[in-house]
Automatic annotation (TrEMBL):
Gene3D superfamilies: Spore Coat Polysaccharide Biosynthesis Protein SpsA, Chain A. GO terms for cellular component: Golgi membrane. InterPro entries: Glyco_trans_43, Nucleotide-diphossugar_trans. It catalyses: 3-O-(beta-D-galactosyl-(1->3)-beta-D-galactosyl-(1->4)-beta-D-xylosyl)-L-seryl-[protein] + UDP-alpha-D-glucuronate = 3-O-(beta-D-GlcA-(1->3)-beta-D-Gal-(1->3)-beta-D-Gal-(1->4)-beta-D-Xyl)-L-seryl-[protein] + UDP + H(+). This is Galactosylgalactosylxylosylprotein 3-beta-glucuronosyltransferase. The keyword Manganese applies. It holds the Pfam family Glyco_transf_43. It is a single-pass type II membrane protein. The gene is GlcAT-I. The lineage of its organism: Eukaryota, Metazoa, Ecdysozoa, Arthropoda, Crustacea. It is found in: Golgi apparatus membrane. Mn(2+) binds at residue 224.
């Protein structure tokens, strides 16, 4: 009965089992079970292998992809990020150049003629303020070399510190004016020329250190004038002597060269001693570097007649026909002869007497 039931059951199962009525067949049955187990085993092994392969495959991607820096981000994303960063930096720097009126072309051009600015300076309460005003303009000018010459018997701490932090290519010199050529406090400013030996010191340095074939221009910039950025753009390509108008000089609003219809200098509007060959202020001209270096007898002189310092110097370098009018045919003012007045320090004198100086241990 039991076997019948088994038989029926088996016959319901499959042909292989339905005919297994004897013990032999029974062992065959257990074999089948084993085989099924085996099938299951091989099936799960296969799944396991597939899982393993998948894990290895993805771990490869993870490992090498991570190393390449493009996992989760797609290929080349790291380099794209770097590129965007660099583009932002370029945009930022370009906007700075634009903001400060600096020509990108000028900065890239390594053959740009150099501008050598010679500045005589002397110790007084406003010295650092004056030099700072000049520095703030010079920082905008590419290929500018500042030669600062102190009227002193050595380099002062103030100017040394100032130049150290200026970020402008510079040369620091000194030359003391002998007392007989100094003006007394009560004398009018025009009685003796100032900055004479200091400018000459700058000229000597150029002759000793610069090759006569080097392209450039020399400008004598006193420390108390007001200079615009445009002025330096005008002077850079000077062939011999460039000239332009100057504000507040010679007792008039503007002293300027006068041009003929062909744009050549035919005269000057100077009020005082217009008979001078070059009735020009120190701030109104620049000299070609090679010309100045080669013209070894061209110096400023304390022996020049009062008011003849500039004309005597220029006569050693050029004729009127050599003058190159700049600043839109001498119609624009890019420099002003602003003379800073001494600040009122009457209370400071009292503090000094009491040993309570306001600037004790401080550079002003
Ligand atoms: N200067 C100088 N020693 C002095 C007086 C002036 O080196 O004893 C410098 C001054 O700092 C300036 C230049 O010489 O750079 C011209 O001097 P100042 O401005 O007094 O002359 P002005 O403009 O009145 O002709
Ligand atoms: Mn001055």
């Amino acid at each position: 009965m039991n076997s019948n039931i088994t038989h029926k059951k088996r016959s319901n199962d499959n042909a292989e089992i339905s005919c297994s009525e004897d013990p032999e067949n029974m062992s065959f049955f257990s074999q089948g079970l084993r085989r099924r187990k085996l099938n299951l085993c091989s099936c799960s092994s296969l799944i396991l292998i597939i899982i393993l392969i998948t894990i290895i495959y993805f771990s490869e991607i993870l490992l090498f992809g991570w190393r390449r820096g493009d996992v989760f981000c797609g290929p080349n994303l790291a380099s794209e990020t770097k590129l965007t960063e660099l583009k932002n930096k370029v945009n930022f720097l370009t906007s700075i150049l634009k903001r400060f009126g600096i020509s990108e072309k000028e900065y890239i051009d390594e053959h740009l003629p150099k501008i050598f600015v010679v500045t005589p300076t002397h110790a007084r309460p406003v010295q650092k303020a004056e030099l700072t005003r000049l520095k703030n303009v010079f920082l905008h000018i590419p290929a500018l070399h500042w030669i600062i010459v102190e009227d002193a018997n050595g380099k002062s701490e103030l100017v040394t510190n100032f130049l150290k932090t200026s970020s402008i290519p510079h040369t620091h010199l000194f030359k003391q004016t002998p007392v007989q050529w100094k003006i007394n406090q009560k004398d009018p400013r025009w009685i003796k020329p100032r900055g004479v030996l200091q400018r000459n010191e700058g000229i000597s340095w150029l002759r000793e250190n610069i090759s006569p074939t080097e392209k450039g221009v020399v400008y004598f910039a006193d420390d108390d004038n007001t200079y615009s950025i445009e002025l330096f753009k005008e002077m850079r390509y000077t062939q011999k002597i460039s000239v332009w108008p100057v504000g507040f000089v010679g007792g008039i609003m503007v002293e300027k060269p006068l041009l003929d219809e062909k744009g050549r200098v035919r005269g000057f509007n100077a009020n005082w001693r217009p008979d001078r060959k070059f009735p020009l202020d120190m701030a109104s001209f620049a000299v070609n570097l090679g010309l100045l270096v080669r013209s070894t007898d061209a110096f400023f002189s304390h022996r020049s007649q009062r008011g003849f310092l500039e004309t005597d110097f220029l006569e050693k370098l050029a004729t009127r026909d050599d003058l190159e009018p700049k600043a839109d045919s001498c119609t624009k003012v890019f420099v002003w002869h602003t003379q800073t007045s001494d600040p009122d320090l009457n209370r400071e004198q009292k503090l000094k007497v009491q040993g309570k100086r306001s600037n004790l241990g401080m550079e002003v």
